[in-house]
Amino acid sequence: MPKDTPSRWDRRMQQRLAHGEAAALGELYDRFASLVHGLAHRVLDDETAADQITRDVFTQIWENPESYDPKQGPLRSFIATLTHRHAVQRLRQTESAALVRTGLGTTEDLERKVRHASAAARADYIVTSMPAPLRDALNLAYFQRRDYRQTAADLGVTEDEARRRLRLGLQLLSTAHNTGTPPGRSYGRPA
């Protein structure tokens, strides 16, 4: 399938939502609710706020299914971008209100906190979206403190392949500090 061709599932889901098929919303929720909640929680560090963002995102998709254009990229990316936008907006609102209420901190502190939370959420999204072989190599190297030789042995691949997987995974992760939407995505404007 050409890279710019949207997946059949994504196109069909958008059509089902546009026709008001409630079962489609349930299927979409089952498939992406943990992604939405996880990204929102990563930005906001608040379970209740993440729950609200999850409801808001799926409500927006239900009420405006045409806002997703399968030609622009995967539905997963659209949902992640929408979640990121909602969560950052909520973070700015709550932190701005706290700044006004307490007088502690500056707008620069607020923006620094937003940038940090956004980068962390993008890194989470990148890791969960990358191919399993890259994710597995990074997991061994980072969390289990394996070097590339040990990673190769654990994965049953050559040392060159382990280095390649680690390099590609780290290159993907290095984009987490870029501003805007998750890497390679074209939905909307940066938050």
UniProtKB/TrEMBL annotation:
SUPFAM superfamilies xref list = Sigma2 domain of RNA polymerase sigma factors (SSF88946), Sigma3 and sigma4 domains of RNA polymerase sigma factors (SSF88659)
Query: What does the sequence similarity comment in the record state about its family?
Result: Belongs to the sigma-70 factor family. ECF subfamily.
| Protein name listed in UniProt | Sigma-70 family RNA polymerase sigma factor
Record has Transcription regulation as a keyword: yes
Q: Which InterPro entries match?
A: RNA_pol_sigma-70-like, RNA_pol_sigma-70_dom, RNA_pol_sigma70_r2, RNA_pol_sigma_r2, RNA_pol_sigma_r3/r4-like, WH-like_DNA-bd_sf
Keyword list, A-Z: Sigma factor, Transcription, Transcription regulation
Naturally occurring in which organism (per UniProt): Streptomyces endophyticus
Where is each RNA polymerase sigma-70 region domain found?
28-94
